[in-house]
Design a protein that fits this description.
It contains five helices and five strands. By secondary structure, it is α/β, with parallel strands linked by helices. The chain is globular, with a radius of gyration of 14 Å. It starts with a helix and ends with a helix.
Length: 144
């Protein structure tokens, strides 16, 4: 999660919502990502999607068996779908998202009978650090 927080800080420096994600397999970081929606003007460029895309390229396929994801903010519906479709086995997230969290807060798309695959969810990992980064970002944004 510390590496995901580093990625989130990179996003914040760019004026992006500070969300970072890493994909790990066998204890090794396979890929990293951070939000780039504003920078690239693309709604798809969430940290999780970027990390999944890089992991798929590195591992040579769209399935990511044996992989887990660490992300600073609970995945939204789009990211939860990408996590399911890539067959990531476990997701560890920091801050819950009361507005659009789809890994247990609003709903849990990762553990529904929507498809033939489920992802195990672990929430609240370094939650205070992840939440504080988001609070600080929005406090600074409002002050501008």
């Amino acid at each position: 999660m510390r590496e995901a927080l580093k990625q989130a800080r990179k996003a914040a420096k760019l004026g992006e919502m500070p969300v970072g994600a890493v994909v790990v397999r066998n204890g090794e970081i396979i890929s990293r990502g951070y939000n780039k929606r504003e920078t690239k003007k693309n709604a798809l460029l969430h940290a999780e999607v970027i990390a999944i895309d890089k992991a798929c390229k590195k591992l040579g396929g769209w399935r990511l068996p044996g992989c887990e994801m660490y992300v600073t903010l609970e995945p939204c519906p789009m990211c939860a779908g990408a996590i399911l479709n890539s067959r990531i086995e476990q997701v560890y997230f920091g801050a819950s998202d009361p507005k659009s969290g789809c890994a247990g807060t609003r709903m849990n798309l990762l553990d529904m009978n929507l498809c033939n695959y489920r992802t195990e969810v672990h929430k609240g990992i370094m939650a205070e650090e992840c939440s504080q980064l988001i609070r600080d970002f929005f406090r600074e944004l409002r002050s501008k």
